[in-house]
Design brief:
Layout (H helix, E strand, L loop, with lengths): L2 E3 L5 E6 L11 E5 L5 E6 L5 H16 L8 E5 L2 E5 L12 H17 L4 E5 L8 H15 L5 E5 L16 E6 L1 E4 L2 E4 L4 E2 L7 H7 L6
Parallel strand pairs: 1-5, 4-8, 4-9, 6-7, 7-8
Antiparallel strand pairs: 2-3, 2-5, 9-12, 10-11
Length: 214
């Protein structure tokens, strides 16, 4: 059973996993509390970033519903949950996937400005635009969301964002997922690790799919 606290915003989880994965579930530990407010997650394709964000989200919902969570230990305060995941376009409304993401982000920023304590889950932030605008926009957004009472998890392929952890009075902490190779075959352990990702696998996956790459 989760422990709901009334003090400052925090999430402390030991061996937390996704309850719908059954025997395939891989559990992780995470601790988000002062002075950190944003967990920035880097990592290769298919390494577990999106699944981990969903793991946090679904266990928060279970905790707030008074249900058991999929963890050995889970402690959090009450926050409004906002997500920006699996955003799609709308041809009928002439809304691109990127603009649909902007509209979702707008709601998150508005809630933050209204002094609500929010928990935000942003998956592959601003992936629908060019790399320069994506990185610039992500930096601005994360600085805005670093307000008292807010906690968030942000996944990205842009390793440049990890430099924000080194800035003075930074409230951002780097974590990553990675892959490894045995007999030239890719493997994933789905374990969350501290620090920035140092591996890439896009070219390997392209070759695996049959795309000829010199």
């Amino acid at each position: 059973m989760p422990k709901i606290i009334k003090r400052s915003s925090k999430i402390i989880a030991k061996n937390i996993g996704h309850p719908l994965l059954g025997q395939k579930c891989v559990c992780n530990n995470i601790n988000v509390e002062d002075p950190y407010q944003i967990i920035l997650i880097t990592g290769s394709n298919m390494s577990g970033k999106s699944t981990f964000l969903r793991t946090i989200g679904i266990n928060i919902v279970l905790a707030y519903a008074g249900a058991p969570v999929c963890a050995d230990q889970f402690c959090c305060n009450i926050m409004e949950l906002y997500t920006c995941m699996k955003i799609s376009d709308n041809l009928g409304e002439s809304i691109s996937s990127f603009y649909a993401e902007i509209l979702r982000i707008k709601n998150i920023v508005k809630a933050s400005k209204n002094s609500e304590n929010i928990l935000f889950l942003l998956d592959e932030i601003f992936k629908g635009t060019n790399s320069i605008d994506r990185i610039t926009g992500a930096r601005i957004l994360m600085r805005q969301l670093c307000r008292n009472g807010n906690l968030g998890f942000v996944s990205t392929h842009d390793l440049e964002l990890s430099e924000m952890e080194k800035q003075m009075n930074s409230k951002i902490k780097n974590y990553h997922f990675s892959e490894y190779y045995i007999d030239n075959r890719i493997n994933f352990d789905y374990k969350l690790k501290k620090g920035v990702s140092t591996t890439r696998n896009a070219i390997y996956l392209m070759k695996l799919a049959g795309i000829d790459i010199e």
